[in-house]
Amino acid sequence: MIVDSAVYRQGERLPVDCNVHDYDALRAAAEGGEHDFVWVGLFEPDEHELDDIATAFGLHPLAVEDAVHAHQRPKLELYEGNLFMTIKTLWYVDEDDAVETGEINLFIGEDFVITVRHGHGSELKQARHELEARQAVLSHGPSAVVYAVCDTVVDAYLEVLEELQIDVDQVEESVFSEKRTNDSARIYTLKRELAEVRRAVLPLREPMRRFTVGAVPGIPVEAGPFFRDVGDHLAVAAESIETLDSLLSSAFEAHVAGIQVQQNNDMRKISAGAALLLLPTLIAGVYGMNFDHMPELRWQLGYLWALFLMVGSSVALWAWFKKSGWM
Amino acid sequence: MIVDSAVYRQGERLPVDCNVHDYDALRAAAEGGEHDFVWVGLFEPDEHELDDIATAFGLHPLAVEDAVHAHQRPKLELYEGNLFMTIKTLWYVDEDDAVETGEINLFIGEDFVITVRHGHGSELKQARHELEARQAVLSHGPSAVVYAVCDTVVDAYLEVLEELQIDVDQVEESVFSEKRTNDSARIYTLKRELAEVRRAVLPLREPMRRFTVGAVPGIPVEAGPFFRDVGDHLAVAAESIETLDSLLSSAFEAHVAGIQVQQNNDMRKISAGAALLLLPTLIAGVYGMNFDHMPELRWQLGYLWALFLMVGSSVALWAWFKKSGWM
Amino acid sequence: MIVDSAVYRQGERLPVDCNVHDYDALRAAAEGGEHDFVWVGLFEPDEHELDDIATAFGLHPLAVEDAVHAHQRPKLELYEGNLFMTIKTLWYVDEDDAVETGEINLFIGEDFVITVRHGHGSELKQARHELEARQAVLSHGPSAVVYAVCDTVVDAYLEVLEELQIDVDQVEESVFSEKRTNDSARIYTLKRELAEVRRAVLPLREPMRRFTVGAVPGIPVEAGPFFRDVGDHLAVAAESIETLDSLLSSAFEAHVAGIQVQQNNDMRKISAGAALLLLPTLIAGVYGMNFDHMPELRWQLGYLWALFLMVGSSVALWAWFKKSGWM
Amino acid sequence: MIVDSAVYRQGERLPVDCNVHDYDALRAAAEGGEHDFVWVGLFEPDEHELDDIATAFGLHPLAVEDAVHAHQRPKLELYEGNLFMTIKTLWYVDEDDAVETGEINLFIGEDFVITVRHGHGSELKQARHELEARQAVLSHGPSAVVYAVCDTVVDAYLEVLEELQIDVDQVEESVFSEKRTNDSARIYTLKRELAEVRRAVLPLREPMRRFTVGAVPGIPVEAGPFFRDVGDHLAVAAESIETLDSLLSSAFEAHVAGIQVQQNNDMRKISAGAALLLLPTLIAGVYGMNFDHMPELRWQLGYLWALFLMVGSSVALWAWFKKSGWM
Amino acid sequence: MIVDSAVYRQGERLPVDCNVHDYDALRAAAEGGEHDFVWVGLFEPDEHELDDIATAFGLHPLAVEDAVHAHQRPKLELYEGNLFMTIKTLWYVDEDDAVETGEINLFIGEDFVITVRHGHGSELKQARHELEARQAVLSHGPSAVVYAVCDTVVDAYLEVLEELQIDVDQVEESVFSEKRTNDSARIYTLKRELAEVRRAVLPLREPMRRFTVGAVPGIPVEAGPFFRDVGDHLAVAAESIETLDSLLSSAFEAHVAGIQVQQNNDMRKISAGAALLLLPTLIAGVYGMNFDHMPELRWQLGYLWALFLMVGSSVALWAWFKKSGWM
């Protein structure tokens, strides 16, 4: 599905009188100035749609195949002057406390950018509008779009990580609460989601670094500081992932230690309870003996005495347990 | 065993009028054009068969020895202009939930490729057919065969990893189920198989990288993007291995934590059960005392009263256990 | 908020007759000599204040944005000849046993330094006074201020780490004490704080290294030994972090082992206690049997005999437990 | 002790008419041709024997000292044109299931090789015989001896690792058996032995790599493929070490998990046993109560009824435990 | 405190007719020959003493400050042609089983060496005497002193590690003994001491490497083999540290597993003990029932029968526990 396609000249959107599918007309319109370019935005296109574009813009078949099938690792590839880039998009689904993954593929030529988005995260409509409002940036040509897309996607990473931070805080609270909680599954799931985020974030650092130092043909050196900015955010995200992962590991260990402390406390409670039942049973056993000569048995208040003995000794035992910190 | 041998000219299989063993004739037939080459496919050849080929194609004795004995690490070696490559093949045996390992050795010269396969995985017949259907690729000469073999083998890695992913998902489900399961052995076996996959996948990355950047004599620079594609799949496989391994570790830890939680729950259940037996025993003990003056003993309904006391106190205790979350 | 702004010539503070906000006048005053420069010190400025300065000194918008929002990673960036540096400040809050984080941003030009401080740690007033007292150092120009700030901040790191060392020593003592303590939460919190310190310390090593070898334009080679000194302190801090972290991990493991030893000891105590109750109960049960012919029942002192048997056997059992090391 | 000393010319052993100690005569005999050399083989020589040789062949005192004292790390050192190499030998002692360590030191000059062996592993007599049978290889001069020694020693590594693999398989079987086994000590010992193997194997890789690429004076480039072969075996050994170590770690973890599962099973068995004793005790307690009006007590078959009740309730309880999977 | 100061010419100590404090006279005396130099040895000097020396020999203030305050990391720094080096000294205190740390600082110029020792380890008097006995070495000038100091200090590392090896062996024995031991604290302390040793050893490797390859001005290339020798010892020490650390980790894990096995054994013993008490209690309960018709109660030997039943069943149960391996 074609979301939008437009021609930009010196940072401004040109009014073009043709169909969004008419790529040749679009390209022709973009031939006017130095930094003129076409930006075609696609959402989960079928093979047919992409083939048309591939033909019109001369894209490499291996890259096109990757863009159709998605499920690539983040990467940046050079095909005879043109760039092909894959970025993972992430978003947090509140209902499930889960991180979902999409993908954006970019084909970058001298006079065109084609963005192919899969999955519902990191919509680019907003990025396009913001970019169209920053004429100075947009006038740099295709690299401005690359920057805008990367910036949008990486900001979404940070938002996802903030949500995960909240989840980790909740886990932490739960682990160190007095309540009997089973946090293993929660921690496991969070670790699994962090691993997903890591797979999106870490491989993107190398392309950003290369953009920053101006080592990629088609991305001008002046764009360096902008990509360094995105790279900084990526570094923050990477650091945040490692911190959260390590906190989860520590929280898990603390959780296991907590279970063992609980076990110990419970065992001591149980043993105290058992003693409180066994001691009066012993007393009852004593007065159940059949000796001919047991003075208490003849007492008028012997029964009361026995009950008092049972209750009294139990209370004393209970107090002793409490005082000694056993219970 | 010679599976197939053929001469290819400009991407097409030449009809050659000679025996599959007649290597000299085959080589002679391949001398016509620039990218002409012979492809000899062997399956677990004995030393004798390989010696013939070694003589005909001038292979290095150390490489031939490796190809006979198999059980090498994946590697790429240069012998006086010729290449020798070893790749591990993997396949998943459904009946045993096990990963099996084979090996393909390739001798690559300017005008020949010899593939020596050990074990039943990654048959190359299919790869040969597909390659013969892609004349443009095949016309690149021996490097096309190297690409086809690598591609076939690495795709099989991804399939094996998908099967292992399913196994890991099952383990995960089992670990977090309420049932009493002992998942240690399963996790251990999966870790062991992942280690086997890792040994096949990781050492192959370096040869792919060198093919991609065109640093290997005999593999033209134009073939780079194809090997980069294989390298991407390898990277996905490597990432998948690390993820699965780390998930298994986490699952194992969660399993151990689960055992401890289970232990704690069981202990509390046991203690409650014991209390439900000991409390009526105490009551029976009380009414088994031999005091002369115990009014209840004389009651007409004393016995019923005692039984009611036993049952009642037990029920009350049970309710209290339930309510307090102990049980 | 502007804390202080001054012009320095050959290591001495110039009396300048203008408002602290009058940046153009300050800059003009600093145009006299070779190493003359302006040092403007800001504390949590609002966007407006910074914009004025950015205009006056020609700062890059991306850098200014970073300085307003704070929460950056430590970094050193080159913008068209000017330097932008971010350093994390740390301080230890005794009341909470917690480490707090602030930030100092530096804009360094040929004839100016602008320091932007966020958070209450590492005040620079003291650093400025000390620096003004060391004319020889100050006469090196802006790089002297960079050195002074780095030195102040890194010394604060070492102080924070000393406080954390004390906390770790306390944890250690608690873990190996005989008392029943639950140190998980404490260890977890300390690990979390160490992670925060690590995030401040580690990324600063690379800028220090670059200052030391004279690889940063605007920082003269002669300043190398001074930054090497700061780098040494950073290395000590980094080593200290790793040591503390690893000690905490070991302490945690010892803590868990301690819980298990405790569990075992408690279980043996409990079992001994149970035996001390069950043995006399058994004896009472024996003399509660209803055989017609039980000689002891007829004895005058039978009851005493039974009580003696109960107490005696319990005492003997207790002694045996003690002697055998069970209890 | 001098084991053997000989002069080799063009790959053949020269008949020399002098004492094995007469180094000057040997050296003189080896001065004839280009690749002629002396090979002196020593076994645990005393300082005196080595001093003679050092004088005759001009060995560096630091190297000689190392060769006397043994207990060096594997290393390759260049002393003014001559090479000094230390290799660890390993052998497996079946009786103790233990790995023992020896050492071979090599002094390599243009026209001599001196091998100094310590410990009983990797005897070189066999290696000398095999080498003497391969004239083509031996004719390369001293580097052929280096190759033969390395090859022999590294093959012994692989044999030791196969033995350890068998031990690990046994541990694995023991860990996952139903029997109550204590595998900690076994696993610990194996880990310790693997560490010893690792200390022998890993530092040898760098010298092999340098031999392979021809970066060592005195080792000709043509010998590269041979040393690459040894290097491959070393790589297999290194991989095997890591795999075994990681398997042992996993096995240990599984062992600990197994103890906990066992603990849980035992606890449930114990609790069931206790219930089977406590329930009839309760029934006996009931019929031991002294109420005047307890009809069962008067029944002719009351006793049998009580016994039936005890046995019956116990059997029912037992059946319930079995059915519910508790026991 | 000045321990000794002397002038060396061509490897021999010159008789100098001046006070040990008269640095200018000493320096003047050392101006005669090419490798003449002064060696001043100090022990924990105060700031004043060092200032005199700094003035006389032209030392850099930052280096002097480091030498006064000690507590540096091992390092090698170049100050305008002069070298400053810090080495940690270690010694083992038998009474406490503890490792103590000192420090030696060296100032190395073309014609002087100043050694500043802090703490009681690695006295240099012995090193000076030994060096004075090796004229050939000493004639190399200041670098000979650097070698002698490094050699002495590193040999002390190896001695300390041997002591720690003994401690680890003891821990090992304790962990795998049958006795109930609590080895956590011991293991923790040893790990802590190993960390201290590591901090001394690891950073020294880089300076040794640089000395070895002759990359440090003032240390001649010919001294390389000597420093390589020290570097080898350092490598042995580093390897030993890693091995001991990893053994301690494994021993700790085995210790924890041992506690759990102990727990399980104890629990089974306890349960057996409880059964041996509960079974006769049940029998006593049976014969304590009040049925009118219980034949055994009327038997002449009923009481004996009951006692026999109790003892007999307990013995049988005990035998069964033993036979089934439960106890």
UniProtKB/TrEMBL annotation, chains A, B, C, D, E:
Keyword vocabulary terms for this entry: Cell membrane, Ion transport, Magnesium, Membrane, Transmembrane, Transmembrane helix, Transport
Role: Mediates influx of magnesium ions.
Record-annotated membrane-spanning stretches: 270-289, 301-321
NCBIfam families named in the record: corA
NAD among keywords: no
Pfam families named among the record's database cross-references: CorA
Name used for this protein in its record: Magnesium transport protein CorA
UniProt cross-references to Gene3D superfamilies, sorted A to Z: CorA soluble domain-like, Magnesium transport protein CorA, transmembrane region
Homology family: Belongs to the CorA metal ion transporter (MIT) (TC 1.A.35) family.
Location in or out of the cell: Cell membrane; Membrane
Membrane topology listed for this record: Multi-pass membrane protein
PANTHER family, per database record: CORA FAMILY METAL ION TRANSPORTER (EUROFUNG)
Coiled-coil ranges per UniProt: none
Lineage: Bacteria, Bacillati, Actinomycetota, Actinomycetes, Propionibacteriales
